[in-house]
Amino acid sequence: MQNRCTPNMPRIDVFAPAKVNLALHVTGQRADGYHLLDSLVAFSPVGDALTLAPADALVLKVSGPEGAAVPEGPENLVLKAAALFGVGAAVTLEKCLPAASGIGGGSSDAAAALRGMAALTGQPLPDAAAVLKLGADVPMCLDPRPARTRGIGEDLTPVALPPLPAVLVNPRVEVPTPSVFKALTVKDNPPLPEIPAFADAGACIGWLADQRNDLQAPAVAQAPVIAEVLAVLAALPGCKLARMSGSGATCFGLFGSEAEAEAAQTALAASHPGWWSAHGSLGDQAQKAAATVR
Ligand code: C5P
Fold first, then answer.
1. Which one of the listed residues 19, 95, 214, 240 is annotated catalytic?
2. Is 187 an annotated catalytic residue?
3. Residue 187, Cβ neighbours under 10 Å: how many?
4. Are 55 and 191 found together in one domain?
5. Is residue 214 located within the same domain as residue 179?
6. pLDDT of res. 1
7. Residue 91 maps to which CATH number?
8. Do residue 185 and residue 135 come from a single domain?
9. What is the pLDDT of residue 8?
10. CB count, 10 Å around CB of 277?
11. Which residue ranges does the record assign to the GHMP kinase C-terminal domain (predicted)?
12. Which of 191, 247, 272, 282 lies in disulfide reach of 38, CB 3.0 to 4.6 Å?
């Protein structure tokens, strides 16, 4: 029997995983100023959590360890995304990822809001142009599986990747994306080479070592602590590759095993208690990120 304190209303849970740019090559610039990228992305089991329930108006409550920096007003991408459905909803966002940190937190939250609103309302997802207008990284976060992303982020090709044990580290410095792009001097770098089928994580990491993040140098110039993060990560036992994600400041280290990544994160959290860090294997988070009805 339905308890009158728990009315028979659907509540949707949606997970918004962190996005990591394993490699990011800037290959050109459009007439409108946006940069053309060729990037390989994968998703982390670490992320934010949203709930959605029917309501007369669209309202957002933000909580969680990283919630203080996140606005609850209409400028929040979650509300901009949910508003595309034209109906009210009570949305909660538990913010675990640091804001403005190069791992797509806001974009992944917006994508999760789209998945959640589609489940709540039975409406289809907005068209591709409306999704892209929310932000260049929102399309790739809508179906969080490893992908090669081109254009400004709208041209997606799924890629099969082995799970990549990783540590994510953010030194708690916000690096504004536009200023990092603006500081780029070379904007016509070579694209990624053809992405082979990787036999295992080691082969993938070996291939990644020959690629780059072209935004890393301008981000380090603006926030030198990123160079320190990369050096600390690279010196952790078992770290095979350390690189920045997106426009920073979050960096990732790739390890030979999940146990090594966990031990490295424990050591890093002890040596740098002011830095945000997390561990988990990067890869396909589509199942974990699917909207579920309670
Ligand atoms: O699309 P999004 O709002 O995430 O982009 C933020 C800013 O980052 C843009 O206004 C632009 O200055 C810069 N950007 C860019 N090229 C991209 C993505 C973002 O120049 N591919």
1. 19
2. no
3. 13
4. no
5. yes
6. 38
7. 3.30.230.10
8. no
9. 67
10. 23
11. 199-270
12. 191
Q: What is the pLDDT of residue 2?
A: 40
The annotation places the binding site for ATP at: 98-108
> Ligand 1 centre and the CA of 96: distance in Å?
23
CB 152 within 8 A of CB 34: yes
34 lines ligand 1 (CB under 6 A): yes
Residue-number span of the structural domain to which 79 is assigned: 12-157
**The predicted structure's pLDDT at residue 3:** 43
Structural domain includes residue 294 = no
Domain boundary at 115, 141, 157, which?
157
Which residue ranges in the chain fall short of pLDDT 70? 1-8
Specify the CATH number for the domain of residue 191.
3.30.70.890
Please indicate, yes or no, if residue 91 is contained in any of the structural domains. yes
Note whether 30 and 140 are same-domain residues.
yes
Count of domains for the chain:
2
Instruction: Report the complex ipTM.
Output: 0.94
Q: Is 7 within the bounds of a domain?
A: no
* Side-by-side strand order, sheet with 239-244: 239-244, 251-255, 164-170, 276-282
For the segment 7-63, what is each residue's pLDDT rounded down to a tens digit? 567 899 999 999 999 999 999 999 999 999 999 999 999 999 999 999 999 999 999
Out of 38, 48, 137, 284, the active site residue is 137
149 with 25, same domain?
yes
226 shares a domain with 203:
yes
